[in-house]
Every structure is written in C-alpha cells, then in structure tokens.
Backbone:
C-alpha cells in the first residue's frame, strides 16, 4: 500500500473545493493501493476566527499553530510516497515548507481550482492582505512533479512553470446528487454560494425585479449559503448552508442562476455552482465567463445569456415552460454524468497518482482515459 499526504487548509468535509477535488476519492484510492491522509490547519473554531473582522491576536495564534503543524508534517514526510498540496501549504506568502518537501525527494502533486495568482482577500482580512503574494504559485509550480488544474485556463497558466500539467475538472458524485420530485406551486429561481460571493447574485438584480413585476407571486427567489442576506423587494431572506441537506437544498429550486463579472479571478472559476444545479436536473443559467462556456452548449443543456435583456428573456422562457425546464435539466444532468462526475474522472485521477507513487496504470472498461494525461504523467517519471 502506497501513502499520500494531502496538505490543505480545512478539515474533512468542510471545504467544497477539497471535497470536489480529492476528498471524495479517498475511498476509491484506498481500494486501489493508495492510502490517503489529510493534514489540515483549521478547525471549526479557527474558521469563525479567521473569517471574522479583527481578532488579530487570535489569528496570530492560528498562524503559530499552522507553522507547528507543518513542521510536524515535514518531520514525517519520508513516511509518504507523495504529497498533494491543494493551493498552498500555509496561509502566508512564503514557500519555505514547499521547498523543504521538494528537497526531501518526495514527489509533490500540486492541485488548484482558482486563479490563485490573483490576490483575493476576504473583507475580514483586508488589513492582512500584505501576507498574501500573487507570485507565490509561480515559485511553487516548478518544485512539483505534477500539476492538476480544474480547467484549461488554469492549466495554461501552470504550463508556463511546469510541463507536467493535466486538466482534472472538479467533480460531483451523481449517485448522491440526484433529482427529487417536487410539487411546489411557485417557480423558484435560486442561487447557492456564500456571504463573500453573494455580490455575484446581485449582478442581475434588475432582471429579478422585472421578473417579479411580471410574474408576482407565481415566482420566488432563494439565496442559499448567506443567512445574513435579505432583499425585501424580492421577498428574499437568505438561508444557511447545511451539509446534511445539500442535495435537498439544490432540489429546492427550479432554475439555478450563476451570474459573474468577467475578470482575471472569475476566468479561473470551474463552474461548480452551475454543475451542481445541473447534477440534480435543474436548468442552469450562467454568465458567459471562463469555464461556463465549456460546460454549457447554449440552449441545449443550459443557457449563457449575454446582457440583461437576454437574461430576462431566458428566465421568462424557463418560467413559462415547465417542459423546457425538464428538457434542459435532463440534458444538463447528462452532461455532468458524462464529463464532470466522479465516475467519469476517477480512473484519470487515480492513474496520475498511481504513476507518481510507482504503481502501474489500471485498465478500465469505461471510456479510454485522456491520452494527454498519460503522456504528461510519463514525461518525467
């Protein structure tokens, strides 16, 4: 049995990114010769402290504990056959830990799903933004044996600094995320996110208001993930996220929206919000930004309207036509199952790891593994 240490910030099942990138594969890896161990920095209490305003002394103590944890990881690094670093090992700008791992000879896999070379700091930590470095990833990538990126935009960036790069999309467990029948009297237009990203929901608030004027009580709006959010005109009181009810929450809407501005940060987004809507058979209406245009074939498995008038027209069509909602939703789920599900990617990801830890590639009766991944994996191994 080979062993891989996963270096990340959050505890198991806390971060959607960690779950969709690697945590949901742990059991699959275990069955196929790779034992996985997660080394996280933050516990539940730390989460509350870190993303709050102020509390700088407590945040300093989190930093001290984080350094201690990574020193402990380094002391036992030779017990592992490879190390996966998700985005970064520490919350600060330095890469001393990554360099020390590289010097041990234990191969590093680097995984990322955002444009992390663009500085993006939560409102609660603006004063600490000097601790973050947009150049950090440029120094980490050359240290790594292999890089897995969430989309082509991210992969193209990584290839400037490391030739061994493969696109592995963030994936959904479609055996868990399934459509649930509903008898709602209203058509619910929903958005799922967090208090830091709810600003994206409001990008087309004028469209929502026009829809409310046209349809009145026949429609409703739902914001999930930010319980502090409210919009009296639209009748919205935000709902808290609940991991234990995640499938139910996504099924509680009829149309899922994902508006985005286009900028260097959003270009790196992996479209997870839209994919999750689609996985439960809900039509996704997404801005034509970044990977969204790869996921959506406009008018067939979802919609990518441009401009407020198109947003209004598309949402009207979906509100007026339940058959269209069902048709687009079904095609959307079909897309996720085929390209963005755990089942569709599990051999691709497993075989990258198996080659890096010195195990043979596994054959599969599924569709042939992406040949570009095999070539990249064999380049320098």
Residues:
């Amino acid at each position: 049995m080979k062993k891989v240490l996963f270096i990340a910030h959050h505890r198991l099942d806390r971060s959607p990114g960690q779950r969709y990138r690697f945590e949901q594969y742990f059991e699959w890896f275990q069955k196929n010769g790779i034992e996985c161990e997660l080394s996280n920095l933050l516990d539940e209490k730390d989460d509350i402290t870190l993303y709050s305003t102020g509390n700088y002394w407590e945040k300093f103590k989190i930093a001290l504990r984080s350094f201690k944890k990574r020193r402990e990881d380094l002391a036992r690094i030779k017990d592992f056959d490879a190390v996966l670093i998700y985005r970064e090992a520490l919350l600060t700008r330095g890469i001393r830990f990554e360099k020390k791992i590289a010097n041990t000879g234990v191969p590093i896999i680097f995984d990322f799903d955002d444009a992390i070379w663009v500085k993006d700091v939560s409102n609660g930590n603006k004063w600490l933004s000097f601790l973050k470095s947009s150049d950090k990833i440029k120094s980490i990538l050359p240290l790594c044996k292999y890089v897995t990126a969430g989309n082509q935009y991210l992969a193209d960036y990584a290839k400037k600094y490391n030739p061994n790069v493969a696109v592995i999309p963030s994936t959904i467990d479609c055996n868990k995320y399934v459509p649930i029948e509903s008898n709602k009297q209203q058509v619910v237009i929903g958005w799922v996110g967090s208090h830091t990203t709810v600003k994206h929901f409001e990008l087309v608030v004028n469209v929502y208001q026009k829809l409310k004027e046209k349809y009145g009580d026949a429609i409703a709006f739902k914001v999930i993930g930010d319980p502090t959010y409210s919009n009296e005109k639209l009748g919205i009181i935000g709902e808290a996220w609940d991991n234990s009810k995640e499938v139910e929450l996504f099924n509680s809407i009829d149309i899922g929206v994902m508006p985005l501005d286009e900028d260097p940060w959003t270009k790196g987004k992996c479209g997870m919000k839209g994919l999750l809507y689609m996985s439960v058979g809900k039509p996704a209406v997404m801005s034509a930004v970044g990977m969204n245009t790869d996921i959506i074939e406009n008018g067939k498995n979802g919609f990518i309207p441009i401009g407020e008038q198109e947003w209004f027209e598309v949402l009207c069509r979906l509100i007026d036509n339940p058959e269209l909602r069902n048709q687009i939703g079904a095609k959307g789920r079909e897309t996720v199952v085929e390209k963005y599900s755990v089942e569709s990617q599990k051999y691709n990801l497993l075989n990258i790891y198996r080659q890096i830890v010195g195990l043979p590639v596994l054959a599969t009766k599924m569709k042939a593994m992406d040949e570009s991944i095999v070539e990249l994996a064999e380049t320098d191994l």
